[in-house]
Amino acid sequence: MRKKDLVLYIILFVLVILFLWQWLSKGVLANQLNKIQNYNNQLQLLSGIGQLGSAHLHADVKVYINGQSIDFSQRKYQLASSFIHFEEGVGDVIHTHATGLTIGYMFKSLGMDFNNNCIVFEKENYCNDNDRKLKFYVNGQLNNEFYSYVIKDLNKILISYGNEDESEIQKQLDSITNLAPKYSLQG
């Protein structure tokens, strides 16, 4: 390679660097990042979920399938989403970090599903039939919102699938912890 060619390549390289520096310093990259954030904000508004950090709520929860409690303290259920999760090895308290989060969203974040007819857990469908029913309680009262129920601070939530009688349901309701106030700002 001749000396002239080497100088030409060095000049072209410096010009490209100067162009990139000028482009970045004018905020083109920052503008693109702002556009992406704006689109994200719009999607969150459409979904009904607030921005990350728009809330800090906690709710006690128990889920039973055929009389067996699901252990959400297992590592695979911890910190599954920044918006809503279980943490610190505690499987009885839902932590939410945005407004508008539903119990259904929590299940989706764990790779599960939940509606008024079925709960999907570990890829198994547990659906209403002649013998077993899915029941959803908030603060000791039957609730028919299921998937769309927006979690509120210090809620006590029970989801139960099976053929339990009233006394067994009461035992399940009584098993819901009272740990949420420990984590809550309002507690």
Report the structural category: alpha+beta
- Count of alpha/pi helices: 5
The CATH first-level class of the largest domain comes to: Mainly Beta
Q: Report the strand count.
A: 10
- Largest sheet geometry: 7 strands, mixed
CATH topology of the largest domain: Ferric Hydroxamate Uptake Protein, Chain A, domain 1
Order of helices and strands: HHEEEEHEEEEEEHH
Q: Please state roughly what percent of the residues sit in beta strands, choosing from under 5%, 5-15%, 15-25%, 25-35%, 35-45% or over 45%.
A: 15-25%
Terminal residue distance: 75 Å
Domain count = 2
Helix content: 25-40%
The 3D shape can be described as elongated
Gyration radius, in Å: 25 Å
Walk me through what this model shows.
With 187 residues, this protein is of the alpha+beta class. It folds into two domains: 3-47; 57-183, Ferric Hydroxamate Uptake Protein, Chain A, domain 1. Helix content is 34%, strand content 22%. The chain has five helices and ten strands, in the order H-H-E-E-E-E-H-E-E-E-E-E-E-H-H. It has helices at residues 3-25, 28-47, 103-109, 166-174, 180-183, and strands at 57-65, 68-69, 84-85, 93-96, 113-114, 118-121, 124-127, 133-138, 141-142, 156-162. Strands 1, 2, 3, 4, 8, 9 and 10 form a seven-stranded mixed sheet that branches. A three-stranded antiparallel sheet has the order 5-6-7. A hairpin with a 2-residue loop joins strand 6 (118-121) and strand 7. It starts with a helix and ends with a helix. The mean pLDDT is 87.
Please sum up the structure shown:
The chain has 187 residues and is an alpha+beta fold.
